Amino acid sequence: MSQRGDFAENLQTPGEEAADRVGGIDGGKLDTVWRELRAGLRRDVGVRMFDQWLKPLALGEYCAFTGTIELCAATEFSANFVANQFGDRLRLAWRSAAVGVREVRVVRGSGKAFEFGAPSAGKAAGQAALPAPFDAPADPYAMEGDAGRESLPVFSQMREALNLRHGFQDFVVGDSNRLAFSAARAMGETTKPLFNPLYIHGATGQGKTHLLHAIADAYLTHFPDHAIIYMSAEKFMMEFVTAMRANDSMAFKARLRAARLLLIDDIQFIAGKGSTQEEFLHTINELAGNGARIVISADRAPHHLDAIDPRILSRLAGGLVADIQPPDLDLRRAILDAKCAAVRDAAIPEMVLDFLARSIRTNVRELEGAFNKLLAYAQLTGRAVDMEFAQVMLADSVRANARRITVDEIQKACAAHYHIEPAEMRSKRRARVVARPRQIAMYLAKKMTPRSLPEIGRIFGGRDHSTVIHAVRTIEHLRQTNPEIDSDIRALQRQLEM
């Protein structure tokens, strides 16, 4: 039998007895010594730190030539942490045991697994074992009974933390969110993305949190054994402060830096929090250096964040910054269509969906909330959903989202779109190059403002209300038969509603 360990290869002399002996030291004696040392270490460093870091260590190889013993940890991170924090203590303990050990190496790998105290039932003495599985209690990132465990949800715990409705398949894509969606998809794939971190910003209710949940769900599908942390910036701050007060910051750092995917929501909430920002900076630097993926969301672009450490801003801006703009009319309508398709027997007329899409313009969450409210009221009261019902039930939401579009704005937008002078909207000219844009402007004035027909007629050069009625009917017909006209009107509506 050759000497165990690559570093001791070819050191045995011919005829040297090797069975159940390691470099002249009985393997059983090393086992006994390690158990005794563990008992002392448990008293010295405390139960919490021992159970988290030293208890999972397995006895590895021993080289009699150098007097070096290996202690095996489950991961590279654990090995480095133990070596840095407990290396001197371990070395002193082994030297004091007077068994020929002069040096201790903490490495990642498999070794002989020992329970604290007597060997567990059913295990033969000295039986080799694999390192503890990732979600086992012996895992260095997980502490049994630790109140902070929920901050590192993995496997089923992470699945429970995710909103199952928030997958990529449920995210409606439009021009306003296409870049953020594509970047998020890349962060959840098996192939390492070309950018890191990913920074997603947009106003409240635009879908940032949805994308973070979708990234975690997709990543877990590809890498079910990897550690994932999802938390808000506020939770990050609260857990950090709690750990500092409990003099347990090392455990907090270890949990965070063990992640292979870190997702932090609403980073703007750590503005002005100096110590929290310092820890956040060190965390993302450590994770990025280890190849972990980082996704951050906020309500504004990095350079618009106030009271944030410039080093953090530089790190965030060094990845990919993707914004989510308020949804345009087409996207809002597509979101409502998707909601209808997902709800059985959602009998909502097209005109009501159009009303919702036009009335609630800036917030996707509020748009979905209005849809849910309308559907719930209809189901509870047994009343069919119609335009009158929708207007009454959603009056408050509509008023809150109301943006007063003026006829003057419509005239200027139509004139610019068709390259004519705004004054032509009020002129008496009847040439088609002027008359058609004027009719479209009248149509939009009727659809998008509270003005009456006579009022609209007067604004358009003192015309009669019947002229406005004719213009509205003409354009409604053309929208059904002329795709170009319909496209122009949609573009003008989006422009006016921004």
UniProtKB/TrEMBL annotation:
One of its GO terms (biological process) is regulation of DNA replication. PROSITE patterns: DNAA (PS01008). Residues 379-498 are annotated as: Domain IV, binds dsDNA. Keywords: ATP-binding, Cytoplasm, DNA replication, DNA-binding, Lipid-binding, Nucleotide-binding. Residues 1-24 are annotated as: Disordered. GO terms for molecular function: ATP binding; DNA replication origin binding; lipid binding. Residues 406-475 form the Chromosomal replication initiator DnaA C-terminal domain. ATP binds at G205, G207, K208, T209. Residues 1-129 are annotated as: Domain I, interacts with DnaA modulators. InterPro entries: AAA+_ATPase, Chromosome_initiator_DnaA, Chromosome_initiator_DnaA-like, Chromosome_initiator_DnaA_CS, DnaA_C, DnaA_dom, DnaA_N_dom, DnaA_N_sf. The keyword DNA-binding applies. Oligomerizes as a right-handed, spiral filament on DNA at oriC. Domain I is involved in oligomerization and binding regulators, domain II is flexibile and of varying length in different bacteria, domain III forms the AAA+ region, while domain IV binds dsDNA. PANTHER family: CHROMOSOMAL REPLICATION INITIATOR PROTEIN DNAA. Plays an essential role in the initiation and regulation of chromosomal replication. ATP-DnaA binds to the origin of replication (oriC) to initiate formation of the DNA replication initiation complex once per cell cycle. Binds the DnaA box (a 9 base pair repeat at the origin) and separates the double-stranded (ds)DNA. Forms a right-handed helical filament on oriC DNA; dsDNA binds to the exterior of the filament while single-stranded (ss)DNA is stabiized in the filament's interior. Belongs to the DnaA family. This is Chromosomal replication initiator protein DnaA. The lineage of its organism: Bacteria, Pseudomonadati, Pseudomonadota, Alphaproteobacteria, Sphingomonadales. The gene is dnaA.
